Amino acid sequence: MLGLRDLGPERLESILDRAESLLPVVRDGVALPNPVRPAMVGLLFLENSTRTRCSFEVAANRLGHRSVVLTGLGSSLDKGESLIDTAANLAAMGLDALVIRSAIAGGADLVARNIGIPVVNAGDGRHEHPTQALLDASTLRARLGSLAGKRILIVGDILNSRVARSNIHALTAMGATVVLVGPPPLLPWTFAEFGSGVDVTHDLDGVLDTADAVMMLRIQLERDAGRAVASDYRFAFGLTVNRLARLGPEVPILHPGPMNRGVEIDDSVSADIARSAILEQVARGVAVRMAIIEAALELPAG
Ligand code: ASP
Fold first, then answer.
1. How far is the CA of 48 from the centre of ligand 1 (A)?
2. CA-CA-CA-CA dihedral for 9, 14, 16, 19, to nearest 10
3. Sheet strand arrangement including 66-71
């Protein structure tokens, strides 16, 4: 699972269906039968993470597997060891699959082509974050039913967001129109990689009333995006209480986290019990990652 670009609607829906059936394990602690041979899942996390890393660990545990974590800090990457060598050494320890996050766009793909075990992309630089988009799609499907014909606003730093890219692939494949909203410096200048179903605007207030769902994104300060943003960002692109009031009572609000409260989203918006789907996303993230680990372990090694 390296990206969603070429996955196609059937595969997407089948992963989401499997995740849905695993949700009671996450929400109600329903136990699964132990696997015949517990697998060892490696988590190589070379960028900061809270939700993704922990939910992969929880997912592996819930499936009855084990995990081992290596972060950049304190590893031999500091001594100049390469990404491929690091991953190859982990694989040589007998891991059954490797989940990898790195700042390098294409990093997971590079590793997958050089080691003989299944690789899952947990975020590669600005490129893709497929399991995030799958959990977003799972949340949207649960709230809206079929996504066909729905208008999903993605607001913020689209240019630097792997979450946006993976979501555009997933949501358009499922028949939604994705409306990308942000200031000009934070929007891509070409959309050639995407098919139809993508609209672009700089005017959040002009499209808010048309939204079936709104996904807010953080400005990727670690990718230098802050330099391109004016200090009044919140007034043009923040999901404020006033803007929330313009959304229908059924319009879900998503955010992949971490939130910068008071910048892209106000406190009371994220706390809106009916509309905020932010913690539901997190719960569904575990189920989605269980489905992905399961699928990865079904692949023959080599
Ligand atoms: N957690 C998401 C990611 O790793 C979103 C973010 O960091 O803004 O891409």
1. 9
2. -170
3. 66-71, 40-45, 97-102, 119-124
Rounded Cα gap, residues 193 and 219, in angstroms: 22
Verify whether ligand 1 is closer than 6 Å to residue 130 (CB atom): no
- What are the pLDDT digits (tens) for 202-256? 999 999 999 999 999 999 988 888 887 888 899 999 999 999 999 999 999 999 9
Q: What is the pLDDT of residues 140-170, one digit of tens each?
A: 999 999 999 999 999 999 999 999 999 999 9
Judge if pTM exceeds 0.90.
Answer: yes
State whether the beta carbon of 123 lies less than 6 angstroms from ligand 1.
yes
Contacts of 54 (CB under 8 A, 6+ apart): none
Q: Report yes or no: 183 and 230 within 8 Å, Cβ to Cβ.
A: yes
Q: How far is the CA of 163 from the centre of ligand 1 (A)?
A: 7
Tokens standing for residue 128: 């893709």
